[in-house]
Amino acid sequence: MPEYQFADKGGKIVSVEYDKNNYFSAEQVLASLDSAFNRFPFPAYIEQVIDYDDVFHVTFPEGNDGIGDVFICAKGTTPGGRSGLKDEQRIQPKAKYLNYVYDRGEEGKKAIFLGVYNRDGETILCTWKVMASAAASIETPISKQIKITSIAKAMREGFVQQDKGKGEYACAFRPEFLYFYLRNCDWLHTGHVSELAEHTMPENFGATEDTVADKGFEEVNFYTGIKCKYPRNRIVFGAPGTGKSFRLKDDCRALLANTTGGYERVTFHPDYTFSQFVGAYKPVTDDEGNIRYDFVPGPFMRVYVKAIKSGRTDNPQPFILVVEEINRAKVAAVFGDVFQLLDRDALGVSEYEIEVAEDIKKYLAAELGGDPDNYCQIRIPDNMFIWASMNSADQGVFPMDTAFKRRWSFEYLGINENESKIRGSIMLGEDDIQVVEWNILRKAINERKAINEKLASEYRVNEDKLMGPFFLPKTIITTVSDTDDTIADTDLFLDTFKSKVIMYLYEDAAKQHKHKLFAGCPDTTKYSAVCEAFDKIGMRIFGEDFEERYYNPQKG
Question: Which of 11, 51, 386, 488 is deepest in the core (most CB within 10 A)?
Fold first, then answer.
């Protein structure tokens, strides 16, 4: 079979052999569309049009925010086309199906030309501008293509446009963005999404029967119109030292640049609880030394209140909750019913509200005004972001169930991510001095563990157990100057290398095979003996052949 490119559910492009018998049927397309329309804020009914295999009709029996009836020409995407290009996906419906939908558009209905991409249970919807076919035969297949890079980006970011040239855009997006697309498809294929600020929020969407006048408080505005390239719910994961926290910190700065928003950081641990995360009544001491019980908000509720307050202003700002080491706690227990709020609609607001306890109602009323009854149900607004880091290699982490994971966008940092930012060399060994660069040594150790045939078969070391460029903090490998790459504090580096790198390898990553990994040490039965050997012979603790077979090749 020929090789084609696919985008996996994490947004990574992979090359695989394509089985032409593995295609998405009309029934599967219908099921995917039905699932997407079930996310809408009002009921939708979809059916296949009789005698038109690839045409679907959508109606909204209880109203539709002005969308109207929708006619969709849709097929599952397949690789190739255009002389077998492997970096594209395409659909090929018959001309009669496309023209049927086009004619409905001419009659004032909503006409959509759509491809369904599915990989590992994850779906991306691809759309193109609907145009009538001039094919001589109504049975002629009509091809439309989209780059696999656009699909991969949509997996990661939710919604993207691909410039097709001549003022035409194709769109690729996750199913939760279908509502946004239908509200704006008249513009999305002829202009960039950044131009659609006035068209992205449906009128009265999310409003309740309880108005400001009825309740005497300032209505909560969940739809602030905040737009950004980052997902609302996001988990950055990778091996130790790949710069996950650094990436989140950098992105916080980028998102909050030129704003008055802010972020709060919390680190999960095995004993972390819902009460700590959201809030609970706790004894507090007043100014006079008297003890009373007050509701003490956790980081989630503090950031939530800030976002809601900002959403009521004329200039809403973004607020970010950063959760470090999210999988070191039992996330299902920590998030509790807040878990339901992580389902966001196309505009970044919780699709489903939750009922909250009396203590939270009273706290929100005190912070936001009004009566506790005004806050019986809450949703996460679109200006509140929840970002997290995760390292699956750590011991003592808790597994996440599928329902929890699917509510997040996952971003993987590779083992050598950002290595260009790392500099610094140092002299190792007393008996046989070597000038060693940390980044090269790190990669050589990774090679020694994972690539050598004999060791690979025994170690079976996954990438998330290897060491990233930032396994040692940048403060440890600070150089003398911009022009001198020598590590400034030799003693600090050596002490840290022993306490972090050697300890990690000895006690964790290569625990069962330390006598092979530290083949140059006369004694591998004690961690202290390995450290003593390192002081004397430097990197040769990894074996006599280490420098020639693993270190030198990394130097290029």
Answer: 386
- Quick one: pLDDT at residue 19? 61
Which residues make Cβ contacts (< 8 Å) with residue 524, sequence separation at least 6? 514, 515, 518, 530
CA distance 315 to 309: 11
How does strand 319-324 pair with strand 354-355?
unpaired
Q: Cβ of 551: how many Cβ atoms within 10 Å?
A: 23
List the Cα angle 144/147/153 in 5-degree steps: 130
**DSSP character string of 50-107:** TT-TTEEEEE-TT--TT---EEEEEEE-EE--TTT-TTEEEE--BHHHHHHHHHHHHT
Which SS3 state, helix, strand or coil, does residue 6 take?
Answer: strand
Question: For residue 432, with 0-12 CB atoms within 10 Å meaning exposed, 13-18 middle and 19 or more buried, which class applies?
Answer: exposed
Question: Given this model, what pLDDT does residue 398 score?
Answer: 73
User: What pLDDT is attached to residue 99?
Assistant: 93
Q: Which two tokens stand for residue 293?
A: 């019980």
pLDDT of residue 251: 92
* Secondary structure letter of residue 414 according to DSSP: P
Q: Are 497 and 437 in contact (CB under 8 A)?
A: no
Query: What pLDDT shows up at residue 244?
Result: 85
**DSSP state letters, 209-276:** S--HHHHTSPPP--------SS-SEEEEEESTTS-HHHHHHHHHHHHHTTSS-EEEEEE--TT--HHH
Residue with tokens 């394509």: 18
Tokens describing residue 16:
């695989």
Helices 358-368 and 299-311, axial angle in degrees (round to 10): 40
Supply the DSSP symbol for 218: P
Task: Say which CATH topology domain 212-413 has.
Answer: Rossmann fold (3.40.50)
The tokens describing 203, both together, are 């009128």
> How large is the C-alpha radius of gyration of the chain?
28
Rounded Cα gap, residues 117 and 24, in angstroms:
8
Using CA atoms, how far apart are residues 102 and 72, in angstroms rounded to an integer?
9
The alpha helices in 390-526, defined as continuous H runs, are 402-405, 438-450, 453-459, 490-496, 503-504, 514-517
The H or E element containing residue 334 is helix 331-335
Query: CA–CA separation, 445 vs 455, rounded Å?
Result: 12
pLDDT attached to residue 15: 77
Segments of the chain scoring below 70 in pLDDT: 1-3, 18-23, 64-66, 81-85, 193-217, 283-286, 289-292, 392-397, 414-420, 423, 439, 442, 446-465, 556
Chain position carrying tokens 């656009």: 150
Phi, psi of 179 (to 5 degrees): -60, -45
CATH 3.40.50.300 range(s) for the chain read 212-413
Looking from the CA of 242 toward its CB, the CA atoms found within 13 Å total 22
Q: In the prediction, which pLDDT does 302 show?
A: 95
Contact in structure between 308 and 217 (CB atoms under 8 Å): no
